[in-house]
Design goal:
Blueprint: H1 5-12, E1 20-22, H2 26-35, E2 40-47, E3 50-58, E4 61-66, H3 72-77, E5 85-89, H4 93-102, E6 111-112, E7 117-123, E8 129-135
C-alpha cells in the first residue's frame, strides 16, 4: 500500500520521539532514570509544592515523567510484552547488564534474538517495561 501525499508530507515534519511516562512519584522516577540509567535532568515543573513533571536526557534520547500516577502494581503484574515496551539502543547490552546488576537492579539476562540483536529487559519503579538492545555478539 502506498501512502497518500498528505500523509507523507505530514510525516516529514516529525523531528523526534519522546515518550511520556505517567508515574506515581516523579521524584522516585527521576532518581531511577538518573542513578540506574545515567539520564540527566533537564527540566522540572512543580504543582502545589510537589514535583509534578520532569524531563530527562541521555544523548539524543529524551523521556518525560508526569505525576499522573496510575497503579504501578498493575503494570508490574502484567506479563512480559503485554503492553507497550520502550526500546533503547545501546553499545553493548552485556556490559549494561553487568552494570545494572552491580547497582542492585534486576534486568533479565541478555538473550540473542533471531533478528540479530541481543536484548534484555528491565522494569522501572512504575512497572514500565524497558528493553535494551545491541548488535548480537559474534
Amino acid at each position: 500500500m502506498v501512502a497518500s501525499a498528505s500523509v507523507r508530507e505530514g510525516l516529514m515534519g516529525i523531528q523526534g520521539y519522546q515518550p511520556l511516562f505517567n508515574v506515581a512519584d516523579v521524584g522516585a522516577s527521576v532518581a531511577f532514570w538518573q542513578s540506574a540509567l545515567g539520564f540527566e535532568l533537564t527540566q522540572t515543573f512543580e504543582w502545589e509544592g510537589r514535583l509534578a513533571f520532569a524531563q530527562l536526557r541521555s544523548g539524543a534520547v529524551e523521556v518525560m515523567l508526569n505525576g499522573r500516577g496510575g497503579d504501578p502494581a498493575v503494570r508490574l503484574a502484567r506479563p512480559h510484552y503485554s503492553d507497550a515496551v520502550f526500546y533503547f539502543r545501546v553499545d553493548d547490552v552485556h556490559t549494561l547488564f553487568q552494570d545494572l546488576t552491580a547497582r542492585g537492579l534486576a534486568p533479565t539476562a541478555p538473550e540473542r534474538q533471531d533478528y540479530g540483536l541481543d536484548e534484555m529487559y528491565l522494569r522501572d519503579p512504575d512497572g514500565y517495561e524497558l528493553s535494551f538492545t545491541s548488535p548480537a555478539r559474534g
